[in-house]
Design goal:
Blueprint: H1 3-35, H2 40-66, H3 72-193
Helix pairs in contact: 1-2, 1-3
């Protein structure tokens, strides 16, 4: 066979292998999703990051193997590798590896549940203590506010009492002056009558 044809055939086979490897890596992501529940937004972000990284690896493979020349048969080879891997191995690998990991983690499940229970008890204890502390702080602040208010009211009453005392003193002074004026009038009238 011609040397160039052998090189192109090797590049095609490497493309098939890369397609299968990319889908194997995606199956690792699927296994992770089966073990740990993900929300839709996180799945979308994971897929976006995965395919960006996969495209970088594909480009580096094409650059290394074919000097960066994108050839139709290499893309077809990767697609063929992905399809072949998906229909032959993908479901089997995902199920087996997921079951294997779940079986390996099962003994630790009891420990993890205990740790989770202890952690939740500790968190509940801390929350209860924080609520009590918050209640004490509110009470202390309320007492402080009441003391300030009582002090302010006391000062206000004292001011009011001083003002009332001044008004009373002025009234008494006016009455005394009237009494003196009346006494002078009576003295003057008595002198006139005499």
């Amino acid at each position: 066979m011609n040397k160039d044809i052998i090189i192109e055939l090797m590049f095609f086979l490497i493309s098939i292998l890369w397609g299968a490897i990319i889908l194997l890596a995606y199956d690792c992501l699927r296994i992770l999703r089966r073990l740990i529940k993900h929300k839709t937004l996180l799945i979308g972000i994971e897929d976006l990051v995965f395919w960006v990284v996969a495209s970088i690896f594909i480009f580096s493979m094409i650059y290394r193997e074919n000097d960066g020349i994108i050839r139709g048969f290499s893309i077809m080879g990767m697609a063929l590798g992905m399809v072949a891997y998906y229909y032959i191995f993908s479901d089997l690998i995902v199920k087996l590896v997921t079951k294997l990991i779940q079986c390996l983690l099962k003994p630790f499940g009891f420990i993890l549940k205990r740790i989770k229970k202890i952690g939740s008890c500790f968190i509940n204890y801390v929350l209860i203590r924080l609520k009590k502390l918050l209640k004490w702080v509110k009470i202390a602040l309320n007492i402080r506010v009441q003391k300030k208010k009582a002090k302010r009211d006391k000062k206000k009453r004292a001011r009011h009492e001083r003002k009332r005392a001044r008004v009373e003193a002025k009234k008494q002074d006016k009455e005394e002056m009237k009494a003196k004026a009346n006494a002078k009038k009576t003295v003057v009238l008595e002198k006139i009558e005499m």
